[in-house]
Amino acid sequence: MNKIVKLAIFLGIVSAIAGGALAAVNNVTAPIIEKKKAAASQGALLEIFPDATFTEVEFKDESGIILAVHRAENKGYIFEMKNAGYNTGSPLEFMLGIDDNGNYVGYKVIVNEETNGLGSRVSDDEFKNTIVGKTIDDEIDTLSGATLSSRAIINGINAAKTVYGDLAGVEVEVKEPEVKVAQISLSEDYSSNNAVVENSEEVDGNTVYTVSAKGFEGVNVFEITVNGNGEIVKVANIEFKDTVGVGDIAIAEDYLASFNNATLDSTLDACAGATYTSKSIAAAVQAVLSGNGESEPLDEEENSSEESSEEETPVANEGPKFVINDDYSGCNATVEGSEQTENGTVYTVSSYGFHGTSIFEVTVNENKEIVSVVCTEFNDTEGIGDSATTEDYLAKYVGATMESSIDVSAGATYTGKSVAAAVQAALEQ
Fold it and tell me: Fewest beta carbons within 10 Å, which of 195, 233, 360, 411?
């Protein structure tokens, strides 16, 4: 019992020290952060209305979004706002300038900790240009792929419009922002999604294809069922590697059902707020409909000899291959060094996979044949890409030359490409 009491006291002391340290750090950093935000806000005021004299004005705002209203003498108003987008833990902070004629003349985001490449785009010119130049009579569309973040901004703009109307004595009409849904055509170029048909099997008269396709953060895997007429019967997601809480709304049964009966001429709605994942689905469906998923028919050898009693083993359908002399420039394979050994020359090669650069040791003999491939540093997705760096898989490259083709490691296409690129770089030396 004494040991338990002593341990509890010890843990309490450690927690108190840690808490005190965190509080001390926060006391130091918080004023610095606030000072930087204040400086950014002041800079934004002058950016929107250069050389203006500003005074703060009183206002009434039922939305709770508006933090302050600054009057630029003889020019207009600047509204300082704060509203939560997707990242509710760190709301967006932004400013909007409206001149005395009701024109949006400036927009500036001060704090933006939304998802990089998605909600973060509300700070970009792409979205800014849909606001600046319009008037209080115009509606602003949400940003495709960043619905929650852009809606937070638009709700702030609507709050500013309402307060502006009170201050300027004009009538304004405020509408809820309409969600702008992107369209995806199955005939578009989805090469960047790198859809790969991993395998196929016959089930109850239909063909079920397993297809991997890159989304926003990772590679998603789908089962796509096609009937005898080449029509989509069903799309199901069996592996999801995109943003939880964002992209996964596109793998709901209701949305996936919209691909049923689709053809290469079909145009479908992207799933609002999950455009990138929607495109990975479209890429997978396109890969199947375009024939990329069709297996080559087996060569049937007729044997009419009644004396033959031995059954021939059918040749398995070949899956996707990496051809060593393909273009792997996107992997940026670089020979970092080399060393002569009794087995041949060992090249140390770095090569980019899905979201990181892995390092390989590639041994090449005097006949320009691969003796061995070893991954010495792995920087792709654990549990997915590493299946392409196992000893068994890398052994497939033994004896390979520049003309060889190697089976793709199912579900690890990007890492597999980085291996092929490293081998190619070594063979080119």
Answer: 233
> Among candidates 400, 395, 401, 394, which has minimal Cα distance to 416?
394
119, 149 contact by CB (below 8 A): yes
The residue among 223, 191, 215, 211 whose CA lies nearest residue 355 is 215
Task: Report how far residue 393's alpha carbon sits from residue 386's, in angstroms, rounded to the nearest whole number.
Answer: 10
Quote the CA–CA distance of 146 and 164 in Å, as a whole number.
Answer: 27
Quote the pLDDT of residue 380: 80
Task: Please check the confidence at residue 300 and state whether its pLDDT lies above 90.
Answer: no
Give yes or no for residue 25 having a pLDDT over 60: no
pLDDT of residue 382: 74
CA end-to-end distance (rounded Å), the chain: 69
Give helix then strand counts, H and E, for the chain: 7, 17
Mean pLDDT across the chain, nearest whole number? 82
Q: Which residue has the higher pLDDT, 294 or 143?
A: 143
Task: For residue 35, give both structure tokens.
Answer: 């000072």
pTM value surpassing 0.85: no
Q: Contact, 425 vs 349, CB < 8 A? A: yes
CA-to-CA distance for 411 and 319, rounded, in angstroms? 12
Asked whether 52 and 44 are in contact (CB, 8 A), the reply is no
**Do residues 343 and 363 make contact, with C-beta atoms less than 8 angstroms apart?**
yes
- Is residue 260 within 8 Å of 235, Cβ to Cβ? yes
